[in-house]
Design goal:
- This protein is an all-alpha fold.
- 51% of the residues lie in helices and 0% in strands.
- The longest helix has 25 residues.
Length: 49
């Protein structure tokens, strides 16, 4: 007797995966911009272009 394995994660559609990836991208983008505002300029000798 072979037991069928149940998948605990339901099959997600392509739009759902796309939306989740987009939300994670936005969260990372805004998080990085907020964190980069708090970091002081460590090398004052470097000139920004």
């Amino acid at each position: 007797m072979r037991a069928k394995t149940k998948r605990s994660i339901p099959k997600l559609g392509l739009p759902t995966v796309f939306v989740l990836c987009f939300l994670f991208f936005l969260a990372g983008f805004f998080g990085s911009t907020l964190l980069s505002q708090d970091v002081p300029n460590v090398r004052p000798g470097m000139k920004s272009a």
